[in-house]
Specification:
The chain is α+β, with helices and mostly antiparallel strands. The protein is 18% helix and 27% strand. The strands form 6 sheets. Strands 1, 2, 4, 5, 6, 7, 8 and 10 form an 8-stranded antiparallel β-sheet that branches. A 7-stranded mixed barrel has the order 11-12-13-14-15-17-16. It has a 5-stranded antiparallel β-sheet with strand order 19-20-18-21-22. A hairpin with an 8-residue loop joins β5 and β6. The longest helix is centred in the C-terminal third of the chain and has 25 residues. It is globular and about 85 Å long. The two termini are 43 Å apart.
């Protein structure tokens, strides 16, 4: 089984360093954005060495001031001070220092971000960056409260002349940086129209950078309605950003606005990898800057598309209008918002809305559209037919392993939108639809008021079968297939396989969550300074947990409970547990044992006690000593499973 692990690289030029630079205080031609208060509080007031004067930004606008140094310089430090005649210290939080080599700052890189409220004095910070810049500036933050300005009373840049190199670039909060500058600093306000710009992607350790021209626009449906906007990037050249597997032009920046852990998608994708779905989108957390304004912690991710290392199905040409080439490949999305797309249809019977994602809307020809619509209708018709459970039923059109693995992964994640937006693809010369990938998990992991708390509100039903959201007709389609006992048995076998081999296992999944929380610790602080929503109910949040640590703890508690819930639902028991053999038998005594009496084990290890129906009753790590209380066990028969240095051994236990 393939696993992807995250390596946390701590960059020594993190945003909290303070130092007195050895280099000179740099001077040059003063620059500024054309701002409303320039005549009253001119740029010179920020460079005059007087803390009693200040430059004032326009309320609600992104203003900046800076210097043309006349030649490239290596920047080794910056200094800043707030307006000091009153308490304006918080209004410099998230101000950004940038360096560039074009006068419009189109190629600018972030050098430093003020992480929080400042002192009422000149504060100096060291910069570790070996690239030389001719132009430097400070982008004043937009104050969250409407109608308020930010101020800076003094601004300094330190450094020395030199073109430098890219040996070491700035690091921001220990995760990669995506810095985007659009033509004329245009804001991104539409989903339909691309605007042009330049993007620079800097690795977390600052040791590598990729820069390119790009087109960028908004993306998403409900996510586009949030203040923190999601984006779609189209690079000029194909690239493998940050070492992610696909070398492509199209990439997404997911905003994760309502997900206060900023990691729900990343955990879901980890489950997808562990359960070996045909395709798991590659993704990594990043800090996003747009025209020098810090936008927050995002997720750089694949665009779901037909491509190498993404959805790998057969490529189509406009000339593929007869069989066998006409049969594939295709990428579809069952999508509530399908009727807003240029190429979509509604199925027969269940009236399921389906968008054709590939071939693309500007490339597909009518014969291809007609073919895939007819083929999907054959699938729906087969599900609804009287003989739907036979070999000539829905299995003729469904790859059951991918459907069931995705179903289990989404149910385990608690994704209430599992069948609200659902991707599937079809290969050439293969009548079956393959369900993959997982996508859009912001409402998962106990983050939806409509299903909270998942493990009790749903009773003994799957979320998708009961109170989860679904596109028209999709719940009925899935529920009908799940009335097939053979399909449920196959699901149980698949789940048991991934439980037995450790892919779905509490300890390692919680370790993954902890590793993500450690990786995101600095970035989440910046994010929730930019978007102060931790104590607000956003989107479908069911509960205010009050802190980042509490949000993470909620996810961990859910994962532990969900494993037990699915274990019970599918009557999971570890392989071989029903019939201990001489080879793997476990010597325990006394046996039978009186309820509440100590049970003695031959060596320490992880003890799991199951009912004879395969339901986990208790799990405990015995680290010291070899005695275990049976006080929590009712009178009856159990299977004891001990995992340790001696391997896995089992015994039948009788409690009297």
């Amino acid at each position: 089984m393939k696993r992807i692990y995250f390596l946390v690289l701590v960059c020594l030029s993190g945003y909290a360093q303070a130092a007195e630079p050895d280099d000179e205080n740099l001077t040059g031609t003063m620059l500024s954005r054309d701002v409303c208060n320039e005549t009253t509080h001119p740029v010179e007031d920020a460079f005059d060495g007087n803390l009693d004067t200040y430059f004032q930004s326009c309320a609600g606008q992104s203003n900046w001031i800076g210097l043309d140094l006349g030649a490239k310089h290596i920047i080794t430090g910056v200094a800043y001070a707030p307006r000091i005649d009153s308490d304006y210290r918080a209004r410099l939080a998230l101000g950004v220092f940038e360096g560039a080599n074009t006068p419009d700052f189109g190629d600018a890189l972030p050098l430093f971000i003020i992480p929080a409220s400042t002192e009422r004095e000149l504060t100096t910070r060291a910069i570790t960056c070996t690239r030389g810049f001719r132009y430097v500036r400070f982008v004043l933050p937009i104050v969250p409260e409407s109608g308020k300005s930010s101020y800076i009373s003094e601004l300094k840049f330190y450094g020395h002349a030199g073109a430098g190199d890219d040996t070491q670039l700035p690091c921001i909060a220990n995760i990669p940086v995506v810095s985007i500058h659009t033509t004329n600093a245009q804001d991104i306000v539409e989903k339909e129209t691309y605007i042009k710009g330049i993007v620079s992607v800097i690795a977390a350790d600052g040791k590598s950078i990729y820069s390119d021209s790009l087109d960028i626009r908004g993306r998403g449906n409900n996510s586009w309605t949030h203040p923190k906007k999601p984006y779609r990037m189209k690079l000029y050249n194909k690239a493998s950003l940050l070492g992610l597997p696909a070398k492509e032009k199209n990439w997404t920046l997911i905003n994760n606005y309502g997900d206060k852990t900023l990691m729900h998608n990343l955990i879901g994708f980890e489950i997808s990898r562990r359960m070996e779905l045909p395709y798991t989108p590659a993704a990594t957390p990043v800090n996003v800057f747009l025209n020098g304004d810090y936008k927050g912690c995002y997720q750089l991710s694949d665009q779901v598309e037909v491509a190498d290392k993404r959805v790998e199905t057969d490529k189509m040409k406009e000339t593929d209008i007869t069989l066998p080439n006409l049969s594939g490949g295709y990428l579809l999305e069952i999508d509530v918002y399908a009727n807003g797309e240029p190429v979509w249809f509604e199925s027969v019977g269940n009236k399921i809305p389906v968008t054709i994602k590939y071939p693309k809307d500007d490339e597909i020809v009518q014969a291809q559209w007609d073919y895939i619509e007819s083929h999907f209708n054959r699938f729906v018709t087969a599900v609804n037919a009287a003989n739907y459970k036979t070999a000539d039923g829905f299995r003729k059109y469904l790859d059951t392993p991918s459907f069931l693995r995705r179903f289990l992964a989404m149910e385990f994640a608690g994704d209430t939108d599992s069948f609200w937006s659902t991707y599937m693809y079809k290969k050439r010369n293969d009548d079956r639809f393959y369900f993959s990938p997982m996508w859009d998990l912001d409402l998962s992991f106990e983050n939806d008021s409509r299903t909270y708390p998942i493990n009790t509100k749903s009773g003994n039903q799957w979320i998708s079968a009961s109170n989860g959201s679904a596109a028209n007709g999709m719940r009925e389609l899935v529920n009908r297939m799940l009335t097939d006992a053979a399909l449920n048995l196959e699901m149980a076998h698949i789940y048991a396989h991934y439980r037995d081999n450790g892919a779905i296992e509490e300890e390692s999944l919680l370790q993954f969550v902890d590793s993500m929380a450690t990786l995101l610790e600095q970035s989440q602080k910046l994010n929730f300074t930019r978007w102060p929503i931790m104590n607000q109910k956003i989107h479908e949040n069911p509960k205010i947990h009050g802190s980042y640590a509490a949000e993470v703890a909620n996810v961990k508690n859910y994962i532990a409970g969900r494993i037990d819930w699915i274990d019970n639902k599918l009557k999971y028991a570890p392989t071989g547990i029903q019939s201990p053999t001489t080879k793997n038998s476990l010597a325990i005594y006394p046996n039978p044992v009186a309820r509440g009496q100590q049970l003695h084990l031959p060596h320490p290890g992880l003890v799991e006690i199951y009912s004879l129906q395969g339901i986990l009753v208790t799990r405990q790590e015995v680290l010291e000593g070899t005695a275990l209380s049976t006080a929590r066990l009712a009178v009856g028969c159990y299977i004891v499973r001990l995992s340790g240095n001696m391997g896995v051994k089992r015994a039948l236990l009788i409690v009297q």
